[in-house]
From TrEMBL:
<dbReference type="GO" id="GO:0006542">
    <property type="term" value="P:glutamine biosynthetic process"/>
</dbReference>
<feature type="domain" description="GS catalytic">
    <location>
        <begin position="84"/>
        <end position="343"/>
    </location>
</feature>
<dbReference type="Pfam" id="PF03951">
    <property type="entry name" value="Gln-synt_N"/>
</dbReference>
<dbReference type="GO" id="GO:0005737">
    <property type="term" value="C:cytoplasm"/>
</dbReference>
<dbReference type="InterPro" id="IPR027302">
    <property type="entry name" value="Gln_synth_N_conserv_site"/>
</dbReference>
<dbReference type="InterPro" id="IPR014746">
    <property type="entry name" value="Gln_synth/guanido_kin_cat_dom"/>
</dbReference>
<keyword id="KW-0067">ATP-binding</keyword>
<keyword id="KW-0436">Ligase</keyword>
<dbReference type="GO" id="GO:0004356">
    <property type="term" value="F:glutamine synthetase activity"/>
</dbReference>
<dbReference type="InterPro" id="IPR036651">
    <property type="entry name" value="Gln_synt_N_sf"/>
</dbReference>
<dbReference type="InterPro" id="IPR008147">
    <property type="entry name" value="Gln_synt_N"/>
</dbReference>
<comment type="similarity">
    <text>Belongs to the glutamine synthetase family.</text>
</comment>
<comment type="function">
    <text>Catalyzes the ATP-dependent biosynthesis of glutamine from glutamate and ammonia.</text>
</comment>
<dbReference type="Pfam" id="PF00120">
    <property type="entry name" value="Gln-synt_C"/>
</dbReference>
<keyword id="KW-0547">Nucleotide-binding</keyword>
<dbReference type="InterPro" id="IPR008146">
    <property type="entry name" value="Gln_synth_cat_dom"/>
</dbReference>
<comment type="subunit">
    <text>Homooctamer and homotetramer.</text>
</comment>
Length: 343
């Protein structure tokens, strides 16, 4: 008989930014299959999700992966939060996604900052003042430029060992800032994988005594903020071969600025200023290979006969990928396509 450690992971009810919670359940000879993971419960009154008088909420497993960070047999169990009657809790962003057939594919570029808990500054920043201006840190290598690589490499290996579809990592524009990329077919699957990767990153941070800062503008001034760029496509965008269809889809986003910004992360006004490779938060634009636009049309898409994907550059690093995907899907489905175009 093998004692298996199942780490049940969920999102709490804190606003404006939800955080991860988890607790361990011991099971005998667990198969590793999500259908064999039992529904569990927790005290919602301790996570801003219920009152003390009606505190029990349910954890419904939605994805199970091996836990590479534990000795012995362990699994990470991503869960949705349900009310006692099995309806989705109001904090459950995953339940808002309408992509049951997996038509939508998402690639999230998750930026974050390694944060020194003693100095309350990015890792690598001097205690007093600032390092040299940004420029040499993006995709950098070498002491004094790339910082925290040991943690970053360990996180990458954990994601790959756990079976997540991690597609790459790189140092970002601000010193101490990094990024990982995850791609998945299906919006819910993409969101699950981002949250599980964030969980493992936080666990790596615990080991090294480094905080993972997801705030979208952790350092004010002439420093890049942190985003979670959302690359997305559906079958139409992957196959249409039509510039007109791409423009129609992009134009569908313009009247829905508020609906997107409302779920694209807290304090995003500090990041979306029109500077540092962003468009202003109250404006909308799109363009080919334009990193200063709200939505970038990748040059790959154009060079492949308008068959590919789009990138929404507005989501902040602290946004919920479930809610980002939900908003994008809703807008794409509202697009007024040219006559004769397949939906």
């Amino acid at each position: 008989m093998t004692k298996c450690k199942l780490e049940y992971i969920w999102l709490d009810g804190y606003q404006p930014t939800q955080t991860l919670r988890s607790k361990t359940k011991i099971e005998d000879d667990f198969s590793g299959k999500v259908e064999d993971a039992k529904v569990w419960s927790f005290d919602g009154s301790s996570t801003e999700q219920a009152t003390g008088g009606k505190s029990d909420l349910l954890l419904k497993p939605v994805k199970v992966i091996p836990d590479p960070g534990r000795i012995g047999t362990g699994f990470l169990v991503m869960c949705e939060v349900l009310n006692p009657d099995n309806t989705p809790h109001k904090s459950n962003g995953r339940s808002t996604i309408h992509d049951d057939d997996g038509d939508f594919w998402f690639g999230f570029e998750q930026e974050y900052t390694l944060w020194d808990p003693e100095t309350q500054k990015p890792l690598g920043f001097p205690t007093d003042g600032f390092p040299a201006p940004q420029g040499p840190y993006y995709c950098s290598v070498g002491t004094g430029r790339a910082v925290g690589r040991e943690l970053i490499e360990e996180h990458m290996e954990m994601c790959l060992e756990a079976g997540l579809n991690l597609e790459g990592i790189n140092a970002e524009v601000m010193k101490g800032q990094w990024e990982f990329q995850i791609f998945a077919k299906g919006a819910k699957e993409a969101g699950d994988q981002i949250w599980l990767a964030r969980y493992m990153l936080d666990r790596c941070g615990e080991k090294y005594g480094i905080q993972i800062n997801y705030h979208c503008k952790p350092v004010k001034g002439d420093w890049n903020g942190s985003g979670m760029h959302a690359n997305f496509s559906n079958n139409l965008l992957r196959t249409c071969g039509s510039k007109e269809i791409y423009e129609a889809v992009c134009q569908a986003f313009e009247p829905r600025i508020k609906e997107h910004i409302d779920v694209y992360g807290a304090d995003n006004n500090q990041r979306l200023t029109g500077l540092h490779e962003t468009q202003s938060i109250d404006r909308f634009s799109y363009g080919i290979s334009d990193r200063g636009a709200s939505i970038r049309i990748p040059i790959f898409t154009v060079e492949h006969g308008w068959k590919g994907w789009l990138e929404d550059r507005r989501p902040a690093s602290n946004a919920d990928p479930y809610m980002v995907a939900s908003a994008i899907i809703a807008t794409v489905k509202r697009a007024k396509l040219p006559a004769g175009a397949a939906s």
